[in-house]
């Protein structure tokens, strides 16, 4: 599939690939404390993913302590996968405090579009706080765009049929819908003044100015719960130690190439998705900057 997309040489791509080595080193050298307010389904996977890439995770979602944790953290990651009333209070308190003391916030709008609660909290977050990055699958990113009435969704026939926490079949990013989805991601990033990442068989990453596609990863990745949550956590750790666009692009590439390597181990040993998760953590831990740059199928989307 890789060769179906024409990946032109681009100065912007070369520049960002040149930053990957430093981006990895910055995380390993500074061990960014990654404060996660997250769901109880994948919380342990997120903590292990952060540790594997060289960061230090702390999961804390009680209102009594979140401001103190934000004080010492490098980044706040908010994942709305399994909200509760008390968690929503903690999300408000910690976001307020993070903005006040200039700590970056990364948001994973898990299941945005499928319930009033998820929509309300997502809208509140993107409208009231400065967010460094938002990562979701294409259904979730379209839902965020819809919540803020992004023009392009009104103009085009782009209705998304949100399906639980997984991407809807019709929203899966492919070569055929890359331009329109690239435009949605770019416009949303520009409108919210943040970095947007829509993940899938091709990841789309934009800061509203530059827009990249990343054709790495493996079809086994969405067959374990937590691959999206882990990616958002890793993006958080990378933003805790790097510029937002560079950190995000390096983190997406790291996750996707680790997924490819993990899938290879699974297939070679005739194993299944349980082993895949273990191999994924192994490969997040083992991947070198050199291999990352060599394997990255990163290209510019000119929208
Ligand atoms: N079909 C696929 N082929 C290759 N990589 C994929 C595929 N689906 C998802 N990924 C990768 O899995 C990770 C999680 O993305 P995704 O499954 O979209 O998140 P979510 O769990 O939020 O739906 C990303 O690194 C993405 O690139
Ligand atoms: C299954 C599930 N239900 C609520 S949160 C969650 C985990 C979603 O994880 P991911 O979006 O990373 O696949
Ligand atoms: Mg998933």
In what order do the strands lie side by side in the largest sheet?
Answer: 2-1-3-4-5-6-7-8-9
Q: What small molecules does the structure contain?
A: adenosine-5'-diphosphate, 4-methyl-5-hydroxyethylthiazole phosphate, magnesium ion
The appropriate CATH architecture is 3-Layer(aba) Sandwich
Structural class: alpha/beta
For the termini, the CA-CA separation is: 22 Å
Provide the helix percentage.
40-55%
CATH topology term = UDP-N-acetylmuramoyl-L-alanine:D-glutamate ligase
The largest β sheet comes out as: 9 strands, mixed
Order of helices and strands: HEHEHEHEHEHHHEEEHHHHE
Q: What would CATH call the homologous superfamily?
A: Ribokinase
User: Count of DSSP E strands?
Assistant: 9
Low-confidence stretches: none
Radius of gyration (Å): 18 Å
What is the CATH class designation? Alpha Beta
Shape: globular
Pathway: Cofactor biosynthesis; thiamine diphosphate biosynthesis; 4-methyl-5-(2-phosphoethyl)-thiazole from 5-(2-hydroxyethyl)-4-methylthiazole: step 1/1
Pfam families: HK (PF02110)
GO molecular function: ATP binding; hydroxyethylthiazole kinase activity; magnesium ion binding
Keywords: ATP-binding, Kinase, Magnesium, Metal-binding, Nucleotide-binding, Thiamine biosynthesis, Transferase
Descriptive labels:
303 residues; UDP-N-acetylmuramoyl-L-alanine:D-glutamate ligase; binds adenosine-5'-diphosphate; binds 4-methyl-5-hydroxyethylthiazole phosphate; binds magnesium ion
How would you portray this structure in words?
The chain is α/β, with parallel strands linked by helices. The radius of gyration is 18 Å and the shape is globular. It has helices at 11-30, 43-52, 66-72, 85-100, 116-128, 138-147, 151-155, 178-192, 227-239, 244-268, 273-286, 289-295, and strands at residues 33-37, 56-59, 75-79, 105-108, 133-137, 195-199, 203-206, 211-214, 298-300. The longest helix is centred in the C-terminal third of the chain and has 25 residues, at 244-268. It has one domain (2-300): UDP-N-acetylmuramoyl-L-alanine:D-glutamate ligase. The model has no long low-confidence stretch (mean pLDDT 96). Helices cover 51% and strands 13% of the residues. The chain contains 12 helices and 9 strands. The relative contact order is 0.16. A 9-stranded mixed beta sheet has the order 2-1-3-4-5-6-7-8-9, sandwiched between helices. The structure holds adenosine-5'-diphosphate, 4-methyl-5-hydroxyethylthiazole phosphate and magnesium ion (MG).
